[in-house]
Design brief:
alpha/beta, binds glutamic acid, five-stranded mixed β-sheet, globular, 15 helices
């Protein structure tokens, strides 16, 4: 099963799972869900939670209705509710280490910001923390806003190179017909192609708390398919929803169209134009050929002005292009550390940093 085989798992929980129609917080459910997360961590998986609920919890605190809430007011409400949301997580997740990341649309769409976010996720995994992500609703305005956490979650899955995204919802998955009005409706277990028929049956259905509905879930699935990530729409209303998927697999899976590695490479290679060049020595060239990362020691020369996360060419000593990649350092930093052993980087730059100038995952051979 796809979830079992995944190393990095993103789980999105919608507002309606955290707060019921009577505006009661579903604390018991959240503590059961925490057991699911604990089990995934025990299996040595990296877990990211994308949680909605800032606006719903803010409304509850202020005794407001979410309906008819104007954007500027909802930004303030989200700011009030986000701390309520994290307090709720902290209280129910007890011994599980949690961190918070609030993202705006630009953080995931701009390469440099996305790669920074990717590194932050990796560092949090290494530290044994579970990032809880939400959209930065207090800052995002309607033009530059996801607005729904389904698509945000799929971007988070893409950036963190996740193997699988689970959208926990208040439905079991996608049905052949509307199950509320048609008894012959059947749950679709696997979807390879999001064709017109799938789009048609994914009719929009919006609850009071969530903003998504099926349409944004299908949008999220499209992003996942092109990121090499499996995605499931599953029922979150049951206790232990993740365990339920593992045991019963009663949900809808969207299968990726390309491998995760190909997706990442496509993302790297599709960069508009490389900003600089790194000329490397023979030692580095053979290290790269055997699949290693590029270290400062093997760099002879740096050309061009570029920033951390920018796209650069890697050339051998005869100026033949060997690979392209995303630099983890600025061109100025590389000028200072080129030719030097990794353990000198801290002293040369005045701060501790990672040792790979271009990580092997951020590199594509041409
Ligand atoms: N980010 C919003 C919140 O936390 C929710 C968006 C959604 O419902 O998908 O309230």
């Amino acid at each position: 099963m796809y979830l079992k085989e995944s190393k990095t798992v993103v789980i999105k929980i919608g507002s309606s799972l955290l707060i019921n129609d009577n505006k009661i917080i579903r604390e018991k459910w959240l503590s059961e869900f925490a057991k699911d997360v604990r089990d995934l961590l025990r299996l040595k998986k990296n877990v990211i939670i994308v949680s909605s609920g800032a606006i719903a919890l803010g409304c509850k605190k202020l005794k407001l209705s979410k309906k008819n809430l104007k954007l500027d007011k909802s930004q303030a409400v989200a700011s009030i509710g986000q701390i309520e949301l994290m307090n709720l997580f902290k209280k129910t997740f007890k011994k599980i280490n949690l961190s918070q990341i609030l993202l705006t649309l630009e953080d995931t769409e701009q390469r440099r910001r996305a790669i920074n976010a990717k590194r932050t996720f990796e560092n949090l995994f290494n530290l044994g923390f579970v990032p809880v992500v939400n959209e930065n609703d207090s800052i995002a305005t309607s033009e530059i806003k996801y607005g729904d956490n389904d698509r945000l979650a799929s971007r988070v899955a893409q950036i963190s190179s996740a193997d699988c995204l689970i959208l926990l919802s208040d439905v079991n998955g996608l049905y052949s017909k509307n199950p509320k009005i048609d008894n012959s409706a059947e749950l679709i277990h696997e979807i390879k192609n999001i064709d017109d028929n799938i789009k048609k049956i994914a009719t929009r259905s919006v609850g009071e708390h969530g903003t998504g509905g099926m349409k944004t879930k299908i949008d999220a699935a499209k992003i996942c398919q092109l990121s090499g990530c499996y995605m499931a729409i599953a029922n979150g209303l049951v206790n232990r929803p993740i365990q339920n998927i593992i045991n019963n697999n009663y949900c809808t899976w969207f299968l990726p169209k390309i491998s995760k590695l190909d997706a990442r490479k496509k993302w790297i290679i599709s960069s508009i134009s490389p900003k600089g060049q790194l000329i490397i020595d023979d030692g580095a060239l053979s290290a790269l050929k055997s699949g290693k990362s590029l270290l400062a020691a093997g760099i002879k020369e740096v050309k061009g002005q570029f920033n951390k996360g920018d796209h650069v060419r890697i050339l051998d000593k005869n100026m033949i292009e060997f690979a392209r990649g995303l630099s983890s350092f600025t061109s100025d930093e590389i000028s200072k550390i080129k030719g030097q052993h990794s353990n000198k980087i801290g002293n040369l730059l005045g701060y501790i940093s990672k040792s790979e100038v271009i990580h092997k995952d951020d590199m594509v051979k041409v």
